[in-house]
Amino acid sequence: MNIKCVANINSLLGECPIWSSRDRCLYWLDMYRPAIYRYRPEDNTNEQLPLKGPGYVSSFIPRKNGGFVLGTSAGLVTYDESSGHTSPFVDPRDNKDDTVFNDAKADHMGRLWVGTYHESEELPNAALYRVEPAGDFTAVIEGFICSNGPAFSPDGKVLYIADSIRYTIYAYDVEPKSGSLGDKRVFARLTKELGFPDGMTVDSNGGLWNAHYGSGMVTRYDPNGSVDFTLSIPAPYVTSCMFGGPNLSTLFVTTASSDANGTKLTPHADLAGALFAIDTHFSGLPEPEFSG
Predict the structure, then answer these.
(1) Residues classed as catalytic
(2) CB–CB of 65/75 below 8 Å?
(3) pLDDT digits (tens, 9 = 90+) for 26-47
(4) Domains along the chain?
(5) CB atoms within 10 A of CB 122
(6) Which of 16, 23, 235, 244 would bridge with 271, disulfide CB 3.0–4.6 Å?
């Protein structure tokens, strides 16, 4: 597979790539700068969008009626990309003082699923929250140290989510209409050599693609949890991945050049913090939008 760097901007913590079929571009962010970017494959341009919001920005989800929802240090906020303005939406965190918003995804019913991590990555105080379009929320999974993901199977009946510090990706059966979860099961365990399981996405065949932070790899897992293959990325701190492009066959990969505290990492590769694009023989799925 052909791997190329499409935006070498040395982001501190590149995260949350989201493909917009409507805009024909990839949105992604730098959590600690903070900054939101829009990459257009058709002319190979990467632009920084205006942002007038508080603190860090960790997640970025399109809204069905336009605009976006961001996970920030001040809670979940709505965001207008043309003006950069944000407005408070809701903050579901029980432990606001020591937990930080992380990855988020919308499901097929238009709900938002957003995870957190313990700020010093030591205590199991983090959770995954399900947020309804009206703003009602539920802590559906608790006890995480550092949640990452989430991702849903093509039929929306399986939720995948990682606890990175525990080197484990879990799977839960989902009742799509209600959003209720079944029992937890281990989907895949990583090792220190493979790195921490970070952001993830699912292809149309049900394969789970997971970014391994610290080892410079992305692994595709079959739906049964077995390893299909692993891609080497020319940057050590791989954070997330998402399919995009005209046929949803390009895998975009975000990377970091700093740790969770914004401290520059060593060894520091020349392409750490870059955005990569990989032509694959797989296709992704249109990304659901939040109905709120």
Answers:
(1) 198
(2) no
(3) 999 999 999 999 999 999 999 9
(4) 3-279 (2.120.10.30)
(5) 11
(6) 235
* C-beta of residue 159 within 8 angstroms of C-beta of residue 181: yes
Is residue 259 scored above 70 in pLDDT?
Answer: no
DSSP string, 86-99: EEEEE---S-TTTE
In sequence order, what are the residues at sequence separation of 6 or more whose Cβ sits closer than 8 angstroms to the Cβ of residue 70?
53, 57, 58, 59, 60, 61, 76, 77, 78, 79, 86
Predicted confidence (pLDDT) at residue 268 exceeds the cutoff of 70: no
Residue 182 token pair: 């079944």
Whole-angstrom distance between the N-terminal and C-terminal Cα of the chain?
38
For 12, residues 6+ apart whose C-beta sits below 8 A from its C-beta are: 30, 31, 32, 33, 256, 257, 258, 262, 273
Helix/strand/coil percentages in the chain, nearest 5: 0, 55, 45
Cis peptide bond upstream of 223, omega within 30: no
33-45 burial code (b ≥16 CB/10 A, e <16): bbbbbbbebeeee
**Against a cut of 0.90, is the pTM above it?**
yes
